[in-house]
Design a protein that fits this description.
single chain, alpha+beta, Ubiquitin-like (UB roll), two-stranded antiparallel ribbon, disordered N terminus
């Protein structure tokens, strides 16, 4: 199984303070939901361009850039962006910026209202330490991880230790993690619970909690829960067979970049195995169009969409892996056309 690693920088996150050590550039600007849009004109209107320094180390700078981007999109297209997502990091250690221009809004669960549900403070501190070490590992090119046991363990020693600490907590405190993930009113609590619960003992309850949290109103909760589900599905064929695939197929059409990225991971794992029924559902015109947009990205996030399109095209897996790794995307598209 191929393993990759990403992290999204959210406005106000502690990660914004960590980019100060080394200035990173805008690597790639990519779009989704852009049918009928003049992307060249839109890129020229944005307040940043590829190759320039992306300065967000000072307080408020990221929020200001996001607001300027929203204004640029609206003034150019007369409609709002559905998402603006700076993501760290590409293969050169620079920012990738994903801009959504259209998409569907899923039926999310109502916002939990229990103000008293929260994790112990040391759980939150552990999660915050994890975020810092994860970003640092990505920045240093040490993002590889082992997912074979159903949870992620980094090759980076400090990050691996923190993940093992989360494993210890998850094994001992699964009940509180399950409770907080479903019922805590504060998004920060659910975000941390979703990540730490990924290190618990594999069980039906853990699996169902992630499926439920994939419909959380907070994107970062959905991100952490769906990533954990991807790892579970990749390591446990029995659990993979229980994944509600139709939901994740529809998730590919989301307005949010993190949703479509994580949905592609889950569907990638499911279609590694005997999955003709799932592939047939993926042949929907709107789904193929979204996957084709993703496959044309110049970032490594495109790989999962390329695998899915290659499987739809009936390309033998060994050949497909070679095409994806060598960036021969057009041959995948050619194979897809021949299948029609």
């Amino acid at each position: 199984m191929k393993t990759f690693l990403i992290i999204i920088l959210f406005a106000g996150s502690i990660l914004a303070e960590e980019v100060e050590e080394k200035e990173k550039l805008v690597g790639e600007i990519e779009f989704f939901g852009y049918a009928g849009v003049d992307l060249l004109k839109l890129k020229e209107a944005l307040p940043f361009e590829e190759g320039e320094v992306f300065k967000i180390e000072e307080e408020g700078q990221l929020a200001e850039i996001l607001q300027e981007t929203e204004i640029s999109v609206f003034e150019t297209l007369n409609r709002r962006a559905s998402d603006i997502a700076p993501v760290c990091c590409d293969r050169s250690g620079n920012w990738m910026i994903y801009i959504g221009l259209s998409g569907k809004t899923s039926a999310y669960h109502p916002q939990p209202i229990d103000e008293e549900k929260e994790l112990p403070e040391d759980f939150i501190e552990l999660y915050e330490r994890f975020e810092i070490e994860l970003e640092d590992a990505i920045r240093r090119g040490a993002a590889q991880e082992d997912q074979s046991m159903g949870y992620a363990l980094s090759v980076d020693p400090p990050l691996r230790k923190t993940q093992l600490d989360m494993r210890d907590i998850a094994l001992e405190h699964e009940e509180i993690l399950l409770d907080v993930l479903k019922n805590a009113a504060e998004a920060k609590q659910r975000i941390a619970a979703a990540e730490i619960l990924g290190y618990a003992k594999q069980s039906k309850r853990q699996f169902e909690a992630f499926v439920y949290a994939a419909r959380d109103a907070e994107p970062h909760v959905r991100n952490n829960a769906t990533r954990a589900l991807w790892i579970l599905a990749g390591s446990n064929p029995d659990l993979a067979a229980e994944v509600p695939t139709e939901f994740y197929i529809d998730m590919l059409l989301s307005k949010k970049w993190s949703d479509i990225n994580k949905a592609s991971l889950v569907l990638y794992s499911i279609t590694e195995r005997d999955s003709e029924e799932v592939l047939e559902r993926l042949r929907r015109k709107d789904i193929v169009e979204r996957l084709s947009e993703m496959a044309r990205w110049r970032t490594w996030h495109a790989d999962y969409a390329r695998y899915l399109l290659g499987r739809l095209a009936g390309i033998e897996e060994e050949r497909l892996e070679l095409l994806v790794k060598s960036g021969q995307t057009e041959e995948i598209f050619d194979g897809l056309i021949l299948q029609k």
